[in-house]
Amino acid sequence: MRDRIHNTASQLQEELVKIRRHLHMNPELSFQEEKTAKFIASELDKLKVEYTTGWAGHGIVATLKNNLNESKKTIALRADIDALPILESVDRPYRSKNDGVMHACGHDVHTTCLLGAIKTLLSCQDLWEGTIMCIFQPAEEKLPGGASIMIKEGLFDKIKPELIIGQHVHPPLEVGYFGFHAGPYMASADELYVEIIGKGGHAALPDNYTNPLIIASEFLLALENLRLKYVENKEDVIICFGKINSDGGATNVVPDRINIHGTFRAMDEQLRFNIHQEMQSIAAQISEKYKAKCHLIIKVGYPVLNNDISATKALVAAAKKFLPHEKIIDLPKRMTSEDFAFYSHLIPAVFYRMGTGNLESGITSPVHTSTFDVDESCLSQSVGMMAYLAITALNS
Predict the structure, then answer these.
(1) Which residue from 91, 131, 199, 203 has the fewest beta carbons nearer than 10 Å?
(2) What is the pLDDT of residue 342?
(3) Across the strands, what pairs with 75?
């Protein structure tokens, strides 16, 4: 089985490069992936694969069935399809033709690999039985996330998979390597919006104003101390603010209002919501202290991504049969987030990383940068891995 899947995936390499480059040149932002969806549908039509469209706007769910009976499993494979609002800065032959929009997080690669996995699975139908849901998901990059919407729209209402598998590009990992992590793997991500309303006035007349900048300073320091408390207790917590604006102000003018935007991340769901309460309590205390308004809005985002421990161990064992052991590595937890996490709270999930970097060739740029690219030899390798893991999961 291993050799056959290797060979089948390898034979697709030239076609995979063409697909990936087409997608890379024609990126679309979250919830705007209309042309991307039409392209995916056209590829599925060539394969005569059944699919449904319109999920969360432009999502597609293709279904592969082979000798289905009640005793056989259903699993799901997922790829995200949206791009980022980034201007690509490198003049490659396949540079984005949509200025200001770029596949800087590798979703073009993910989509290509899932299409390639479908082709491989169809070519190897004698090796598996059951049902495979192939989810081409929109809007991973923007709250509330395409995954949460697809679930609300009934993604798993008719058929609930026993396992869902997803993969993601990983530039720090050399091409040919794959990384796994069992248990909580990626952090929750909530957006923080703070509005502080004091009383403006002339800077030379302190009795006449309540300076919202001072209130903001105390609030930010209080939340930093809250973060440090948890870090000292070995908890994985991030509270960070990256934007602050006032509604006016000058060297001698105190504004009435300050707005601050930030992010909160944690690796434990109960802790996550406990800290929500602590942050609100701090805001209330500071409001009372200054007789002003310190209004905190927490926009709840993606949950913790939890890789099912037993399923991950099983797929790691399978991956080590597909590739040499040294090509399969253990990854540390990450404080970045992914809306694949929503799936992991409903069904067993395994989300792993594929190496896409090539130090010799200078392909080292991180995701979400204007210079991001991949070593395209990752395509057939990742297609083979996904197909092999899917068949292993179905047959186990």
Answers:
(1) 91
(2) 98
(3) 132, 163
Q: What gap in Å lies between CA 211 and CA 199, rounded to an integer?
A: 6
What percent of the chain lies above the pLDDT cut of 90? 97
Contact 50, 68 (CB under 8 A): no
Element (H, E) at 107: helix 107-123
Q: Is 15 a known active-site residue?
A: no
Q: How many CA atoms lie within 13 A of 388 on its CB side?
A: 25
- Residues of 359-372 as b/e, b for ≥16 C-beta within 10 angstroms? eeeebebebebebb
The catalytically annotated residue of 28, 43, 80, 82 is 82
Instruction: Give how far Cα 190 sits from Cα of 82, 104, 143, 228, 247, Å.
Output: 20, 22, 10, 18, 25
User: What domains does the chain contain, in order, with CATH numbers?
Assistant: 2-186+304-395 (3.40.630.10), 189-302 (3.30.70.360)
pTM to 2 decimals?
0.95
- What average pLDDT does the segment 185-199 reach? 98
| Annotation says 50 is catalytic | no
Token duo for residue 81: 């399809």
